[in-house]
Amino acid sequence: MNLNYNIKKESDPIRQNYYPHFKTFSAPTADTLFLLVLSILALESVHSIRFLYQHFLSGITKKSLNAFYHACSYAKADYSRFMNVTVRTTLHLIPNLLKTQPVFLCIDETMVTKFGTKFENVSKLFDHAAHNGSNYLNGHCFVSLMLCIPVWKHDKISYLAVPLGYRMWQKKESKLQLAASMVRQVMPEFSQNKNVIILCDSWYMKKSLVSVVDEYPNLDLIGNARSDSVIYDLAPAPTGRKGRPAKHLQIFSEPKKSSRMVTSAVKDGGAKRLFFSTVSPEHLEIFCVWHEKAPLNQTGSDWMQYIPLFLYSFRWNIQVSYYEQKTFWSLCSYMVRSCKGIEMMVNLISISYCAMKLLPYVDNEFADYKDKSVQEFRFAVSEGIRKQIFFTGFVQNIETQIKSKSVINAIKQVFRKHGCHL
Questions:
Q1: Three-state secondary structure along the chain?
Q2: What is the pLDDT of residue 403?
Q3: Which residue among 114, 240, 352, 413 has the highest number of C-beta atoms inside a 10 angstrom radius?
Q4: What is the pLDDT of residue 51?
Q5: How many other C-beta atoms lie within 10 A of the C-beta of residue 287?
Q6: Helices 374-417 and 27-42, packing angle to 10 deg
Q7: How much is the pLDDT for 104?
């Protein structure tokens, strides 16, 4: 019995979910990356590739440790396409009755602290949420996208949040430009969706990203802006006359017809928040009554104008995803030096996390885990993988012993025929 074959056979649902991500890679690279994903699911922590190899991979494959390092850092593998595959897979899960509901693209960045200077592109970064006594940390910054789609949950509409991918900020371009390029890469996958809405905070409410909204008729934006933000109209076209033309026209540029809302402060002297929305509540086909959570399911005709403000709350899902991946999925524990290797490892962890969120909706065999946490489902999958490894190894040992006994008995019979004793 072949151990490697049996592991692949038993992990068919997982393999079917992942292999579309690797289909453009060479067969050896695809197989190596799939084994890495399998090891991420099988072990509760991912300290390094060496750790995965020593505690899992060396027992199920004859590939060397260097093969896994090479697949991450040097193989001709375009991991940026992971986002497109994840989007296509996720959009197929939207029920027919909910096809007209809006879907959301959440944008944010997260910091990863690293010690030392051996990692490529490591630098001092400002982090307003740092808890180390300083607002600066030594590490990497990743810009990421998350997709939220409507699904049924106990006859109510719930939004399933799926991270799409990470890109390391390497200071060759701004984080705004990096986020805009990620949005442009996945937007062709949304050609059949009527309403795609970007959700972002005040950092991303600037020209480089806001201008993307004008490039796609089905794309809108709901964002939080600083109260002192000033947005100007586009510069006028050259007239051919002498003198320098004006840099700006009128204050406030509307990428599309937009609305503005200012929230009041909870306490006296507290901060007020300014929100911009390019989507009109009248143009949104959203079934408020069927939503599982307030305040959307309590929205009457008097509150319809505030729906964009309520929808902005879905952006918090990306923060929950950061917390879960950093705490339970070892997102910060990568031990690869090159930028390509780091991005590959981070995105492999991300698609592993995605699979645990998508499989309960893709395969009815796992439907019971729709209401359970991603970590609980991962533990169940991990336990199943380890049991299969133990069972297959046990059968291999029995087969070896049976074959050995058969050989010994055959030799004994030969010796007896010749009048000898063994």
A1: CCHHHHHHHHCHHHHHHHHHHHCCCCHHHHHHHHHHHHHHHHCCCCCCHHHHHHHHHHHHCCCCHHHHHHHHHCCCCCHHHHHHHHHHHHHCCCCHHHCCCCEEEEEEEEEEECCCCCCCCCEEEECCCCCCCCCEEEEEEEEEEEEEEEEEECCEEEEEEEEEEEEECCCCCCHHHHHHHHHHHHHHHHCCCCCEEEEECHHHCCHHHHHHHHHCCCEEEEEEECCCCCCECCCCCCCCCCCCCCCCCCECCCCCCCEEEEECCCCCCCCCEEEEECCCHHHCCCCHHHECCCCHHHCCHHHHHHHHHHHHHHHHHHHHHHHHHHHHCCCCCCCCCCHHHHHHHHHHHHHHHHHHHHHHHHCHHHHHHHHCCHHHHHHHHHHHHHHHHHHHHHHHHHHHHHHHHHHHHHHHHHHHHCCCCC
A2: 46
A3: 352
A4: 92
A5: 15
A6: 110
A7: 94
Helix 339-362, helix 27-42: angle, nearest 10: 70
Separation CA 120–CA 47 (nearest Å): 18
Tokens of 341: 């290797």
Alpha-carbon distance of 94 to 89, in angstroms, equals 10
Token pair, residue 277, equals: 């929305």
Q: How high is the pLDDT of residue 156?
A: 85
At 235 the pLDDT is 64
- Determine the pLDDT at residue 135: 79
Position 408 scores a pLDDT of 47
33's tokens: 């990356």
Question: In which residue ranges of the chain is pLDDT below 70?
Answer: 1-19, 130-132, 226-236, 244-271, 287-290, 292, 294-302, 390-422
8 A C-beta contact, residue 165 and residue 107: no
Quote the pLDDT of residue 244.
Answer: 66
pLDDT for position 367: 86
Single-letter code of the amino acid located at 138: N
How many other β-carbons are positioned within 10 Å of the β-carbon of residue 344? 22
pLDDT at position 189: 93
pLDDT, position 305? 77
Instruction: Using DSSP bridges, classify how beta strands 196-200 and 103-113 pair: parallel, antiparallel or unpaired.
Output: parallel
Token duo for residue 184:
């442009």
Nearest to 151 by CA among 291, 51, 280, 251: 291
pLDDT the model gives residue 238:
72
Give the whole-angstrom CA distance, residue 48 versus residue 29: 19
Whole-model pTM?
0.80
